[in-house]
Design goal:
single chain; globular
Length: 437
């Protein structure tokens, strides 16, 4: 009976979002409360679970996600991302343009959210394709594959960051594993797969493109790279130094402080406000306006993440998670493969990678605790599954189709297959790491 109620609740969530077109935050909230009632939780306990679920989830995430959005917006508005892209084109040369595009997406995708990176980099994709008379999809897909992998696999992007917190994983370790898995996924789904797409023709873009900034007004190369990657540099350096100075408690505490994602992001914002903002001639009021817009851009993402935490808390407080974990434990599937399958199924049904990943985490987090699976690999397995088979119920599918001027069939041949390759290669990478570690 417990399994039936669980699947009915998840099915109701899927229908509300896909068929009913209900806002995901409202859908999660409504289904969570309904689940508590059906599972015969005391009404006062349901209210408490709602507060605890959204509070615990957002309490550990909101600073990193908000500051990450601010950094991404500043990187975009200052022209740092454009400078990185231009530098990559010069370094790789015309013969290896697809590799330059993939590497640019890789670097830019670390600080930028997918939608921001997509819109920002589209003018570069179009200009390169037209300048060298190359097929648009062939040039653009490697860069978008990189952006997608960064968005689905690596913290501090919203979904991976939420998964890290839910599974009590280590962010630095998850990021390191994610980079190892991301590289082959990008290579296979990007430059290699793009070779088969040279004959796909694009019509004129139906969406207006944002204007590029004059070269003289862009920040310097070193400034652009360092400012964009400063959170990664700070956390990685502090983590290594923390391990080196582990016998020294005072030094270890200092390095542990700077290795904390909240502190690393806050430090980055302070430094980047000067290096990409004030130093470029922007007023503080202009920079603060950029930050305010960044928070508006991710406000709904925060609400969706918080509401997913409510559903998880209802499952935990009602005892469903324990029953589910016990049942799933008996399935003849490795936990990491099971996690990928659950996330992939939800992705196909719901469309949103973020919602699919968070819903899968709410279902599977008790199982991870019971079977003792590596939480870092669990995060990556769900992240990989959440990218599988993007199709017509995913906004990114239509964004790609309209920008590139493709038919539905060609979008399925290119975008959908690319996302599926990324997902499957990610799963294989997770299983290989699990075997080797």
């Amino acid at each position: 009976m417990t399994f039936f109620i669980l699947f009915a609740c998840v099915g109701c969530l899927v229908l509300l979002i896909t068929w009913g077109k209900i806002n995901p935050f409202l859908a999660f909230l409504g289904v969570s409360i309904l689940s508590g009632v059906v599972l015969k939780m005391p009404l006062s306990r349901i209210s408490q679970s709602v507060t605890t679920g959204i509070g615990n989830t957002l309490g550990s995430l909101v600073i990193v996600i908000v500051l990450g959005a601010m950094l991404g917006k500043l990187v975009a508005e200052s022209g740092a991302a454009q400078r990185i892209a231009d530098t990559m084109q010069r370094l790789f040369g015309t013969r290896h343009l697809v590799w330059a595009m993939a590497f640019t997406g890789f670097l830019v995708g670390i600080p930028l959210y997918y939608n921001v990176g997509f819109v920002l980099l589209m003018p570069i994709i179009f200009s390169v394709a037209y300048r060298y008379k190359l097929p648009l999809v062939y040039i653009g897909l490697p860069m978008l594959a990189s952006l997608s992998v960064m968005h689905g696999f690596l913290p501090p992007h919203p979904s991976p960051m939420a998964l890290v917190m839910q599974f009590h994983a280590d962010m630095a370790t998850t990021f390191s594993y994610g980079i190892i898995i991301a590289i082959p996924a990008i290579i296979i789904a990007g430059p290699l797969f793009a070779r088969s797409l040279k004959r796909i023709a694009s019509s004129d873009p139906t969406v207006s493109l944002c204007a590029t900034t004059d070269d003289d007004d862009l920040p310097g190369v070193v400034n652009s790279f360092v400012s964009s990657l400063l959170p990664v540099i700070t956390i990685a350096t502090a983590t290594v130094l923390e391990k080196i100075y582990s016998p020294n408690d005072s030094a270890q505490n200092i390095f542990a402080f700077f290795a904390d994602p909240n502190i690393a992001m806050a430090l980055t914002i302070v430094i980047s406000t000067y290096t990409l903002g004030i130093r470029s001639g922007k007023k503080i009021s202009q920079i603060m306006a950029v930050y305010a817009d960044a928070v508006k851009d991710i406000s709904m993402i925060l609400l969706i993440i918080g509401s997913a935490g409510i559903l998880k808390q209802i499952f935990v407080d009602s005892g469903v998670s324990t029953v589910l974990a016990t049942g799933l434990k008996s399935w003849p599937l490795p936990p990491l493969l099971l996690a990928w399958l659950v996330a992939a199924g939800l992705r196909i049904a719901l469309g949103s990678a973020t919602i699919a990943g968070l819903t899968a985490a709410g279902i599977l987090s008790p199982l991870a605790l019971q079977v003792g699976v590596d939480p870092n690999l669990m995060v990556l397995s769900i992240g990989a599954g959440s990218l599988f088979c993007s199709h017509v119920n995913d906004t990114a599918f239509w964004l790609f189709k309209e920008y590139f001027g493709l038919t539905i069939t060609d979008t399925l041949r290119s975008w959908t297959v690319m996302e599926s390759i990324v997902s499957v290669v990610g799963l294989l990478g997770v299983l290989c790491l699990n075997y080797l570690m």
